[in-house]
Design a protein that fits this description.
- A five-stranded mixed beta sheet has the order 1-2-3-4-5, with helices on both faces.
- Helix 1 runs antiparallel to helix 2 and helix 6 crosses helix 9.
- The protein starts with 5 loop residues before the first helix and ends in a 17-residue tail after the last helix.
- The chain has ten helices and five strands, in the order H-H-E-H-E-H-E-E-H-E-H-H-H-H-H.
- The model has no long low-confidence stretch (mean pLDDT 95).
- Strand 3 and strand 4 form a beta hairpin.
- The structure holds nicotinamide-adenine-dinucleotide.
Length: 255
């Protein structure tokens, strides 16, 4: 696991250790498995130390330049057969692949939050991705206990293409006074059997993230049906970003 500073890799490793300890407490993992997992985890801040890796999953900040910068730092150290995967939620895999110099060895591997719990991984080949690369990505996801679903490289893939317009429409309902936030969420929970309402989910994801993904859909398809709801824009402008800022469609304690 690599990050840009020692403090950040240590913080990441600590979060993993806490998660594994919780899994032992809840009897989802044995103590032996916890120790084995921790022993396999190595941290670094030096790209050269990833030279031996067969498969690298990039999960850096959701900005095209940051991602391509990381791949350019990696590329000279890695063997030509090493596969590069991106956990991007919205950036085109074909575009990222073309910028890496190994487009046939590049694939999207989109995990879901919280990763240890959620089964789904969207496996996204770019236009130039080799079939063997896709097969290896599917095998890797399956070996980690996930359910890989192959999805073609279109903006938002399937997950955010379907989820984000639903959340955005829920915000339109709130703005137009169709129901209040709890009413909208209750309709979707009790009527559609969704475990969380769309507005609760937006607060969990972050309203800025929801707005940014809607903008990716809007600008990619040039279709007004993807325009972010003005209320969503206004809440982002106010800094009401959901759970992480203590206020979104609902209010949260300081914690
Ligand atoms: N948060 C989610 O729910 C979620 C879900 C699915 C996919 N994703 C995707 O995962 C990626 C990361 O999302 P996040 O929410 O964890 O972002 P984040 O901004 O919280 O974390 C990004 C991490 O990348 C590190 N980083 C930045 N530049 C780097 C570089 N050049 N080299 C090494 N490390 C670098 C940062 O220090 C930080 O630790 C994004 O592509 C996002 O779309 C996020």
């Amino acid at each position: 696991m690599l990050d840009t500073s020692q403090a950040l890799v240590e913080a990441g490793a600590k979060r993993i250790a806490i998660g594994l300890a919780r899994d032992v407490e809840k009897e989802r993992l044995t103590e032996e498995q916890r120790q084995q997992s921790l022993a396999r985890l190595k941290t670094t801040t030096a790209f050269a130390e990833l030279a031996e890796a067969d498969f690298i999953i990039e999960a850096v900040t959701e900005k095209f330049e940051v991602k391509t910068g990381a791949f350019h730092s990696l590329d000279p150290h890695c063997r030509p057969e090493t596969i590069f995967a991106s956990n991007t939620s919205s950036i085109s895999i074909t575009r990222l692949a073309a910028a890496t110099g190994r487009p046939e060895k590049f694939v999207g591997l989109h995990f879901f939050n919280p990763v240890p719990v959620m089964k789904l991984v969207e496996v996204v080949p770019g236009l130039q991705t080799a079939p063997e690369t896709v097969e290896q990505a599917i095998a890797l996801a399956a070996s980690a206990g996930k359910t890989p679903v192959r999805v073609n490289d279109f903006p938002g893939f399937v997950s955010n293409r379907v989820l984000m317009p639903m959340i955005n429409e829920a915000v339109f309902c709130l703005m137009e006074g169709v129901a209040d936030a709890a009413g909208i969420d209750n309709v979707m929970k009790l009527g559609m059997n969704h475990p969380m309402g769309p507005l609760e989910l937006a607060d969990l994801i972050g309203l800025d993230v929801c707005r940014d993904i809607m903008m990716v859909l809007y600008e990619s398809f040039h279709d007004s049906k993807y325009r972010p709801c003005p209320l969503l824009e206004k809440m982002v402008a106010a800094g009401w970003l959901g759970q992480k800022t203590g206020r979104g469609f609902y209010e949260y304690g300081k914690q």
